[in-house]
Design the sequence.
């Protein structure tokens, strides 16, 4: 059990609110298998067009060569590259997959009751993930426990906050939330992210869930479920 006093809780997703295996075994393969068709069918839509332009520029290929763009994106998915245009496209594809009933999301069972308890106590709740805000909201909207987006006050990704391993990103989030860093709590299963948040003046608690072999938490302050966190709201 870990006791914390704060005004807001900011959560990672993969390995924290949701199983990493769901991301790697379900979401990534789905996006990969639908990427080429998505680029062809949606290339004229603003969000997809902008992502295609960005990918083509990063790869050094012509943006009209959708085969080269798609190949690059598939390689990025295989390597889990945290590239903003890839995250944008994945989020759009997953959003469609949920809408079609081809995808379901995964949220650990202890997460919804904790979010409701924290929200009722007056805490501000936010999500910060490498996945796009679109992807985040689609995941929480399609949880087995119901649409959880009403419990989330703010969403941040690498385009709105910056890379998760940099202290400046957490400083930026603090500014956007208008809450002093000392009153912010970050939850993650990745020590490098916890270190970056700590460097920015945040409080941190590592998440070490059973079965999540990719967790890298090494700090002493950690829990295995959200139910092991006792949070007192700072006024």
Sequence:
């Amino acid at each position: 059990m870990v006791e914390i006093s704060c005004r807001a809780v900011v959560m990672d997703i993969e390995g924290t609110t949701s199983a990493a295996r769901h991301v790697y075994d379900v979401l990534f393969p789905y996006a990969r298998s639908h990427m080429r068709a998505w680029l062809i069918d949606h290339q004229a839509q603003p969000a997809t067009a902008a992502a295609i332009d960005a990918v083509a520029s990063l790869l050094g290929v012509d943006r009209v060569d959708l085969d080269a763009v798609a190949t690059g994106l598939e390689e990025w998915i295989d390597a889990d590259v945290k590239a903003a245009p890839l995250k944008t496209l994945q989020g759009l594809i997953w959003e469609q997959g949920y809408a079609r009933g081809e995808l379901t999301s995964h949220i650990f069972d202890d997460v919804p009751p904790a979010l409701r308890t924290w929200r009722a106590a007056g805490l501000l709740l936010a999500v910060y993930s490498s996945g796009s805000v679109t992807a985040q909201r689609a995941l929480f909207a399609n949880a087995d426990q119901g649409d959880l987006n009403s419990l989330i006050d703010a969403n941040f990704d690498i385009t709105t906050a910056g890379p998760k391993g940099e202290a400046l990103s957490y400083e930026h989030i603090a500014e956007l939330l208008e809450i002093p860093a000392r009153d912010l709590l970050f939850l993650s299963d990745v020590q490098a992210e916890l270190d970056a948040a700590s460097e920015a003046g945040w409080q941190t608690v590592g998440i070490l869930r059973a079965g999540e072999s990719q967790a890298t938490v090494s700090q002493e302050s950690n829990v295995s479920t959200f139910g092991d966190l006792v949070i007192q709201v700072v006024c």
Q: What stands out?
A: The helical segments are 20-42, 46-59, 66-78, 84-99, 111-121, 133-141, 167-177, 191-199.
